[in-house]
## 1
Amino acid sequence: MDQMRRNVLKAGAGASLFAALAAAGMLQPDAALAADWSKKAFGAKNLKDALDALGAGTPINSNDIVMTAPEIAENGAVVPIGAVSNIPGTESIAILIEKNPTALAANFDIPAGTEPAVSTRVKMAETSEIHVLVKAQGKYYRTKKEVKVTIGGCGG
Amino acid sequence: MADPTRIRATAKDGGVNVKILMAHAMETGQRKDDAGKPIPAHYIQHVDVTWQGKVVLSANWGTAISKNPFLEFNFKGGKKGEKIQVMWTDNKGEKRTDEATIN
């Protein structure tokens, strides 16, 4: 409960909305619906907690996920990341950055008819492994890659 | 009020390529201002892209998405002249919806 209280306090102005979200998260920790923004998943301070909050547990390493990311990012504030899943039945694609203050960066729902491929730009606090997590037919898969950062994207 | 979202939707090979650039500070809540006071977090949490009433991409974001977020994806179906809508909601409850024509 302490954790929840902190989350609510942190949420500040939007406290009541966040309390509701956190409460929903507390009631069904494993079944965080991808359609709902999960305070628990996005507030998780490390990779394991974020994976747990997503219900991913220990994902299966897969070569069928292709991540496009630079080896070295000169500016941690803008790091282009592309993720393509070649796993049949891909339902969602998430991007997690292990050493960021909160690991989960984004979670994309892929409806039928949409290619399981997204590109975006993320912030990285420091050199870190980036994980792409794919949910397909109820199972979780991942691939990871280290991106070196010369200037962090969260300090200034 | 936030600036308009820039959307480019291009029909090709029976699908549509969508490129989106949103105008948003995406403040993480980790930074401090010149006086040393923390700058409150302010970031987009949810994005929905719809085409003919159908959601073609739905995203939940944390604070790690870069300022003025960029997003690119492809969906099947969709023809020249049809419209897509991009709607975002941030952690302060602000919303914005923009529309573009596929060309």
## 2
Amino acid sequence: MGTTVANLPVERKGMTDPNYLLEVRNLKKFFPIQRGFFRRTVGYVKAVDDVSFYLREGETLGLVGESGCGKTTAGRCIIRLYEPSAGEAYIRSRVLSPNGSGDVAVNIFDLQPDQLKLLRREISMIFQDPINSLNPRMTVGDIIAEPMVIHGVYEPNTGRETVVNLLERVGLLPDHMKRYPHEFSGGQRQRIGIARALSLNPRVVICDEPVSALDVSIQAQTLNLLQDLQHDFNLSYIFVAHDLSVVQHISDRVAVMYVGKIVEMADSDKLYSKPLHPYTEALLSSVPKPDPRSKSKRIIMQGDIADPSSPPPGCYFHPRCRYVQEICKKESPAFREVEPEHFVACHFAEQLDLKGV
Amino acid sequence: MEIEPLVEVKDLKVQFEVRAGIVRAVDGASFTIYRGQTLGIIGESGCGKSVTARAILNMVPPPGKIAGGEVVYYKYQQRQGTNGGSHQVEQIVTTKLDPDGPEIRKIRGGEIGMIFQEPMSSLTPVYTAGTHIGEAVSLHRLVPVKTIGDQMAKNIQESRKVTKEEAREIAIDMLRRVGIPKPEQRVDSFPHQLSGGQRQRVMIAVALSCHPAMLIADEPTTALDVSIEAQILDLMRELQETVNMSIMFITHNLGVVAEMAEEIVVMYLGKQVERASTENLFYDAKHPYTRALLRSIPIVGKKTRDRLAVIEGMVPDPHHLPSGCLFHPRCPSFMPGKCDVIEPTWKEAGPNHWVRCLLYEEV
Amino acid sequence: MTTKTAQDAIPLPGEAKKKREVSQDYWSLVWWRFKKNKMAIVGGVMVILFYFVCGLLPEFFAPYTLHYQSNYLEARPQPIVFKNQQGQFSLRPAVYGLNQELDMVLRKRTYVVDESRIYPLSLFVRGQSYKLLGLIPMDIHLFGVSADAGEDATAFILGTDRLGRDVLSRIIYGGRLSLLLGLLGQILTFLLGTTLGVISGYYGGAVDIVIQRLTEFVGAFPDIPIFMALAAAIPVTWDPMWVYFMLTLILVFIRWGGLARQVRGLILSLREREYVLAARSAGASDIRLMFRHLLPGTMSHVIVIVTLMIPGMILSETALSWLGLGLRPPLTSWGVLLQEVSSVRAIRFAPWLLYPVPAVILAVLSFNMLGDGLRDALDPYSRR
């Protein structure tokens, strides 16, 4: 299935670890703020500000955070829907490897347009909004088949079969191929979006808040479906969401983002039971628990979420942090591995004793 | 705290007439909110919880109309010269008042306040019947072109006899109480200059500035970030304690309602299916829908990576409602021959724990 | 929260049959909504009639040919009465005859109605010959007075002009050029405007700025002087059809900017929709995104805009031709017809020469009704 592609930006020492399927390093995405008649750039919204993470095959990495944290932007940068301002993103690609067999680590951000198009077979995306993520003028069959058509792999007979298979796999009927998106409920539309994302047999799927706009009971169905599909097709997910309970349920590892930076990243269970960053602790305690008997006192963070266009000096979280010290106001903490596979950006990560859920 | 009723909803029925027929958005809701109490109403989209709230204030937008039942508001007045002693009670049937008349408008805002989901959110739910909410019910909505102070002062002056300067002072004080920093400056800013959380606080301030006896909160924190939500919920509880205000809290978030409400009503497709104290609902849910709902949510702290228990099937089309019990096509405890034929009635299945399910009826 | 409309939930298998009738694609839904709007139907029918009668088969519908000059100069319209030749009531319409008279005050010949002579109208009469669609020689007209009624039998329902030409016939013929110019011009405007609008909106940046400035530059020209200049630049020696074509182009040149600007605005709002992002993330090319995803999303708006611009073109052509800046005889459009009423004398003594005006008004109204109906049908959120 591979192709010979010239001038591949293969990095010898690209990946830190041979087990990684995807690795993002120092990703930055700044949006310029333009004022005035001549559109001068007066500042930047630092939507993503030096973010690094990795993903193994078959894993789910949750990217969680509140509004303005940059999780959606980060997800879209990986697939180059937004062009990143800086950084690298390595992926082990089969389609881009010279003889099609082995994996080759390539830097997504350096790919030429034709190479990037090939790569789009390996990474696909599921979107949040069930209303707007499907073209209302296209039939469901056309929507699901479109990625295949774009890449020229849609044969009239086999292609149709593939679409039918995908529909059935996500729990819809073959008859639905001829219908239009507006005839379906939100949960079903998300399924159509999932079928579309799988039509080219990707390895990595970026799920951008796929259940946030769904009813509670439909969320459960959709999450189950995603888990089943991951198991059946050996998919790797980057799961972007703001709902902490959903993220914990589906993710193997979780990265917590705040105002463009990752403040903590660790194995899911560990992060939730024993966080090392004050923001994670406060966030976890803020989540309302569906348990009237739970007596845990909530940590209330004062003030509002910091503004990504003019973040506070030093650690971005310091104005709201219970444990703030002088150094926090001056120096931005480094994102470092404090325990095996547990990364934190806090000056006092080792000293603090924080509560989980 | 005395257990006195404040708002009593009696067999309320609200219908929408649309092209395809009649949609029974609310079909026989009955519950009582007591003074100082918080009642939670939970359900998914299309269950009728928002319509119920609007019906209480006789604000159902066309083509909806109140088709049966009534809502009684018990108006308490402090006798002159006493401080918290005996009260006079006047009963007003809100559903019978003229929807545009002066009496109901005095109640709206003055006696019963209402706050909505953040108006700038894109997640505003749409009625099952396709009707748009909101634009017709611009109660205390923040208008983009006037300053916060002006809007609050206007509302305050509508319900209390104060001068413009006094109203402004009250507004500043309310902003301070809801936690807006530098309220003297903020009072002159426009809504779009505030963040979502601040806007919601301002809405609460507006609603509370007239000292209502009850606050109806329709998904007030759904569009807010978790950390801001925590602040708002705390604020609401604190204010409730200081002024002994009742709250009717409408949401689909089971975590939020577990924290805020003392009693909960569960709705499904316009019908009440269960009502109980919060603890009883979560620990001893009786209706299969409630049980399934509770099982289907992932819970922070519960380390399961297994599949979530789902409610099979989909919410039916409101024009093709199932026969008998509305939930029967999706019910794990479905009894053929019974549940699809007989409509269950509202029965007390435990101490102050009511259910609408044939499992608890001797049939 | 999900959006729940009445048609949202797919029913359980048993109920699938009942729902068949509501499974429709977007355009069927549009058509269904359109049908419910009486005004829109009326407008649509009238537009179709206009194009059929004036655009396609004017020779058949007009009682006389375009350039036929009778002996009855500036004759009054012959009123239609329901009498037979004996003067009694009859269901069949007829016209009074015309007599020549000398008007001593004005010192000219006038033609007045003579109620003593009654000529019944017939359908499908043989009249002057013509070539249907330019190809088929025929001589049957929809209505008129039959030739056996005599030499003096005339049916100038709306009178004649100073060369004795039937006003009604000329209005029908004139409609062809006016309406077709509107349509053709609008098609060209549509092609030019949407293409540039899409490119401008999609690419943004320098391309957008250039195209935007271009539309503003063009739009800033005052209409009439530009038209005068360009029309004057057309050599008089040119074949009239070329003149017609050039004038169409000139009108398009003035108008396309507005459409491009609107399309650009629509594209800007659609560009960040998630289904567009989804197609991009699947690797869709720019062309595909623009013409398969973005442009169809604008079609509902564009159709309305274009339909409502047609009357503007018709009016422009009428006004400009009337001013003498547009078409000239022997080309005949409604504007050209109105050239003959440029003086007070004409209005005072032969006001029937103004009949092209109601024709224009009717055409414009029809397009407006159609356009409004389309807009309501295409807008899913209008309150009904």
